[in-house]
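For practice. Supply one:
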Amino acid sequence: MILILVIFIFSCSKENNNLPSYVKIDQVNLLSSPNFGENTENITDVWFYVDDNLQGVYEIPVQFPILNDGIQNIRIKAGVKANGIASTRTQYPFYNSYVDTIELNQNQSISISPDFTYNDSYQAIIEDFESAGTIIDSTLNSEIDFSIISNNQNHYALVKLDTPNINFEASTQNLILPQQGAPVYLEIDYKCSAEFLVGMYVNYPQSVEIKDLIWVTSKQDWNKIYINLTQAVSESIGALSFKVFINMRRNDPSISEEMSLDNVKILY
């Protein structure tokens, strides 16, 4: 009887020692930086590390268990859906990690709201439509130009495709972008009534190649998308420069289409 009691007490003690702590993350924050424009974000996931060991990747908001307890060094990396696709969740290379020291207690929950910032070791080409002149212009393929709209001290580009116009296209100026696998991304804040195409004009010494990259689905409300340009840029061996373009067509002659764009950023 005594032996059974000892085993029972030991078993309960062992189970209590294995009780997890919990971390709760309801929201994240992106702090603004003059070199990287507005702090709009669409961070969907957190990559959570303890002492640089990955504990898991979680879609926020989330509460998850951690077997560690006591004082712990943590690192949280911001995750996004590359190209807006859920199956391509990835750490966003242009955000700094959130680093902190926290105390974990068994069977208790701690709430964290990590602050992320852009990494100053990268560069950004920004068009927020706030200044006179733009680095984005309609191309020769476009039948119309965009308008600049002011709304509560914010400016954005508005495209209206009405009869008889069918096609709108705008592109950046020529860009010199790094290759050999260096990360290159395009960020766009947008809303639109029809899907639009994002692609690149690749300028070679004797020719121009057109690369259609991704179709972006329509959104009634403002949304942000992170488009991965890395492969398209790096595989263009010998290119002198690049232009990123946005194209929208009106396929149904009886329907007008609209698209709004803001905070267009190319990061590298």
The chain has a mean pLDDT of 93. The domain at 20-116 is CATH 2.60.40 (Immunoglobulin-like).
